[in-house]
From TrEMBL:
One of its GO terms (cellular component) is Golgi trans cisterna. It holds the Pfam family Hid1. Residues 561-641 are annotated as: Disordered. The lineage of its organism: Eukaryota, Metazoa, Chordata, Craniata, Vertebrata. The gene is HID1. This is Protein HID1. InterPro entries: Hid-1/Ecm30 (IPR026705). It comes from the Eukaryota. PANTHER family: PROTEIN HID1 (PTHR21575).
Amino acid sequence: MCLKCKPVEATDDAFWDQFWADTATSVQDVFALVPAAEIRAVREESPSNLATLCYKAVEKLVQGAESGCHSEKEKQIVLNCSRLLTRVLPYIFEDPDWRGFFWSTVPGAGRGGGEEEDENARPLAESLLLAVADLLFCPDFTVQSHRRSTVDSAEDIHSLDSCEYIWEAGVGFAHSPQPSYTHDMNRTELLKLLLTCFSEAMYLPPAPDSGSTNPWVQFFCSTENRHALPLFTSLLNTVCAYDPVGYGIPYNHLLFSDYREPLVEEAAQVLIVTLDHDSATSASPTVDGTTTGTAMDDADPPGPENLFVNYLSRIHREEDFQFILKGMARLLSNPLLQTYLPNSTKKIQFHQELLVLFWKLCDFNKKFLFFVLKSSDVLDILVPILYFLNDARADQSRVGLMHIGVFILLLLSGERNFGVRLNKPYSVRVPMDIPVFTGTHADLLIVVFHKIITSGHQRLQPLFDCLLTIVVNVSPYLKSLSMVAANKLLHLLEAFSTTWFLFSAAQNHHLVFFLLEVFNNIIQYQFDGNSNLVYAIIRKRSAFHQLANLPTDPPAIHKALQRRRRAPEALSRTGSQEGASMEGSRPAAPAEPGTLKTSLVATPGIDKLTEKSQVSEDGTLRSLEPEPQQGSGDGGPVVGESGQVWREQRRPSSGSASGQWSPTSEWVLSWKSKLPLQTIMRLLQVLVPQVEKICIDKGLTDESEILRFLQHGTLVGLLPVPHPILIRKYQANSGTAMWFRTYMWGVIYLRNVDPPVWYDTNVKLFEIQRV
């Protein structure tokens, strides 16, 4: 089978057929038989043979799709060609000279002349994609035949309505077909080929204007593909209907090998790639916010060209939303179930793909977002996300997972209902490496965020703004924080308001502003019920006085930075009473040395990620004009102007030694004067003397008496006029679109190890690094 030796005529069928005629191969065999070095050698030394091989393999797939693959031999040929193309395509994509090959039309090579002329005009890529789409709805190969008779009356693949052959019940389809191991395996192989076709994106460097569409995805999700709707529905339903536990019997997966999982993983990966669409630049009605999702079923304005995005944005039936949300929650909670009865259920590995899919659903379909927030079902998504965030916080190889979890919570926190839902008591005891507390889901969120900030690794610092923005967004709605959560918030304030932290980077003071905003929101809007927080503020009042008296003279600034050099630990746990962790939990572990990870592009700063809105009296949101960039009185570079500047800036630098930014008196004064301390100072002024009096009068050291007093106290008429509530809502932007693209392909690259489809090829979208 020497392809390097000499050019072989395309008409030499005996030679070419040996590549796909073999009966007993698997995709792993093809990868072993066709080593990378061999493919590259043919590409360099005998390009015409590689071209013919690709063209002949596509031709075989087209023939299989035409004939309907009735014989076992035809099915085998289709599978082998599919495996061979999966093997070869990445090596075509990695060479810029070959990149246009699949988009060119193949001259009459090898055509027996009997072909119609117009077929010749199709680029190879299009023929390949249409053949794969047809083959995914091929009776007795990838779907069940509806006819139970002889081969003669087998369904004609051309007149077949693939909407009747959707793979799984769910959105828009009520009938659940008999599961078939063979059909699932065949679908998985074809989807792997499809994913490989789409993966050309991995071989292009990240472009700042993420508007560049992937031509493979663009064609596959266009009206040219007559199976677009049933395929979109099949992929979505296959993912959302999957139950890894299997019939609800613990340990069942040990008895039955689950052949569905590879299909579900592949379906999830193909789905998120087809939905890679920059909503910031599209004219999709559901994303523009002003229509608040009512334009879902109207045809105007037209949705995006990408039919998968279009269909996703138009799902609107309550029962469809329920099916999707229940499925997502079931799968995301799966790794958590592990901790009750170890090994009792199959542990799925594709939670990152599911989070990307959930993000796409909320971003492209506002009706779905509102549905999610309408009931406390949103908490079934929240708890797994908090579990993943807490579990991954020390692991450098899972920075991407941390980001997407935080992005989803940021998106949800822009809606009032999310804050309201957080008041539900938290009773599910998922073993997590956090202090034990009794309280609500809001307490869980704050305790986990505190843990991430104080004991995560350095690379998470760019996320601190996002984490605190989420807390600010929900704070006006939190009815009663537990003592544990209240202490955590004050510990963060103490840590962030030390002079060395405030003076060591241009943006660090923003974190103090966020925390003060949280305290002000709760005092002004939820004072009754929050005696724990009020008590914690009184106990830690020195932190607020210190802020009010922050030194601004150059010698003091210099001295604070000197102290920083002697104590390089960023945020220690000192001053935070770390109660015992929950029973059965394992500490968050760092990555094993040598773990592979893929690089990510920098994320935009919080001012680019969000847009400020003011909550009016009637609860509606009014968008605020963005203030001029220097408005917050920063002397340093603007946040997020370039993610890189921002990321570096946050790492407390030793003043100007790095030739970078250094703090000045004017700079400190410019923001110190804006610290919103009035409400808290007034509260302290009124309550501290009263609390001290109780303590002296009753010789008290007992907290419960003071808390009882605070519970019944009131500050009505004593506080400044309540400020309007500000919500920072996530807004789509091309920076995050590019981030999602690199993250998603990085996940797919690392998760496809058997066979290693892209391993050791020259990808450009990200770098592969070892921890």
